[in-house]
Amino acid sequence: MVEAGRTNTYPELVARLLREGRRDEALQWIYRGIQETEETAPGIADELRTILRETWEREGDWPAVTAVCAEAFFYEPTYPAFRDLEEAARRAAVRDEVREAAMRYLISGERPPAGGGVISGVLPDTGVGVRAPRRGITAPGADTLIEIAIAEEKPDEVLRWYDQWEEVKIDRYLRYNLEDRVADAVADAHPELAIAIWRKKAERLITEVRPRSYEGSLQYLRKLRSNTETPEWEEYLGELRHKHARKRRFLEVLDHAEDQQIVEGYPIDHTLEAQVSWCPRSGDVEG
After folding, report:
1. Do the Cβ atoms of 285 and 250 come closer than 8 Å?
2. Domain range holding 236?
3. How does pLDDT run across 46-67, given as a tens digit for each residue?
4. Cα separation of 195 and 182, whole Å?
5. Which one in 5, 65, 100, 169 has a CA-CA gap of 20 to 30 Å to 31?
6. 230 lies in a domain?
7. Which of 255-266 are b and which e, b meaning 16 or more Cβ less than 10 Å from the residue's Cβ?
C-alpha cells in the first residue's frame, strides 16, 4: 500500500478497499491521498473527493455529501456546482441555510466564516481541508447568477444580473451560448432586452464577412422577425440592406429571414450551411 504514495494509484487502491468492505481503511487512504496530491496531481485529488462523496451518498449521509459539494462550490462557483450543492442540501434538510450562504458568496463575495467545516454550524467537518478558491471571484458572479435565474424561470432576476454584467463587464465574458439563453428567457417579460441581444449577435456575425457567419446570423434575424412589429422589422431590414449592400452572399441569406413561414426559434438550415463555401466571394468584401 505504500506504493500508492509514490505512484498516485490512490483511486485504484481506495476502490479495491471499498470492494473488500474495508470502508474505514478506504477513507483513511482518501484523506491521505487528497493531502498528498492536492498540489502535484489535483485531478487525482478531485477523483478521491468524488469517491468520498459517492460513498456517503450510498450510505445516505447527506449532511456529509452536502459538505463535500459546498467545498467544491466555494472552490469554483459554477452553476453545475451550485445545482449539485442545492440538491444535496435539500436531501440533508438544510437547503435554506446552504442556499443563503451560497447566494451571499455569489452576490457579495463573502465566504462563510472559518470554523469546523465549510459552513460552520450547518454542515459537518468532513475531515477534508477547505481549499482556497481556484480563482478569485469578482462579485457578483454574474454568469452563475444568470444561470440560476434562468433555471428558476425568474426573468426579472435574469435582467437584473445581465444588466449589471453589461454595466461593468464583471466577468469579461459570458459562458458559451449563455447570452442566447438570456434572450430566450426574457423574451416575453422583457422583449426589449431579447431584441437588443439578437441584434447584437446577428450584427457581430455579419461583420465577420464570411458566408458561414452570414448563415449563423440567420437564426437571430428569424427571431427578430418573429418578435418585432412589421413596421419596425421592415425599417431594420432596410438598414441592413443599405449598410451591407455589397455583401451579396449576406443579401441572399437575408432573403431567408423574410420567409413568411418563419416561426419563433426556427433552426438554422444546416443542409444549406454545409453547401456554403468558407471562402468569401469578391462580392462579399466591403469596399
Report:
1. no
2. 191-287
3. 999 999 999 999 999 999 999 9
4. 11
5. 100
6. yes
7. ebbeeeebeeeb
